[in-house]
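Subject: for your reference before the review

Hello V.,

The reviewers asked for a structural picture of the protein, and I figured it would be easier to keep everything in one thread rather than splitting it across files. Below is the amino acid sequence we used in the manuscript, unchanged from the supplementary table.
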Amino acid sequence: MNDILQTKPLLGTGIYTVPDIALILGIPYSKALRWFNTFWGDHFAKKYDFAYSWNVDLIKAVNFHTLIELFTFYQLSKAGVSTRELIKAHDILSEQYDTHFPFATKMVLEGLRTDGKKILFEQKDGSIYAVDRTLQFKLNFIKEFLKNLDFDSDSLATRFWPAGKDKAIVCDPHHQFGQPVIIGTNINSEVLYRMYLAKEPVEFIAELYEISPEKVQDAIDFHKSAA
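And here is what came back from the structure prediction:
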């Protein structure tokens, strides 16, 4: 596969621990930890001889692309797809698109569908098949979160807008190791939220960091919803 093997944190790739994953993606901590260890730490790592995680001060962490894959897993799981089907689809699409991160790749994400049981894939010619070895055709599908991602020229996800692109919060591996920041800045959104919790007025926080009160409120709302 063409992806660069990452055995330690690299600048611009992001660093996300399980608590970070749970916060940013809104996934229950226990589920994020189980998936993190079982799938990317075990199954995928062994199958492709690829390190999807590394230790940061004895704490396991993953990069931005694995974060996005976890989000894709979660969305499809919420739609009713079993973990067995998720793993099978990931394996097949990894081989088909020659990447360790199929669920963070634009071509794959644009084609993903589900009928609530199987993962389906719609090709550019409009044909839809189940992502299994039978390639049976299906038509029902659901797709939601692709619009909250930005992609690079290689079609891999580069930025994630966890609250939607109409809000100021973005996860960009080139800023604050990929932690949620205010768009166009290096201001960590959690810093603004902690000031709010300390009873600082929104207008004061905005003036202090030279951003609009609306952006401060976006940070507050994001962390409130994740609390």
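For the response letter, the relevant points are probably these. Residues 2-7, 135-143 have pLDDT under 50 and may be disordered. Residues 29-48 form the longest helix (20 residues).

Happy to draft the paragraph if you're swamped.

O.
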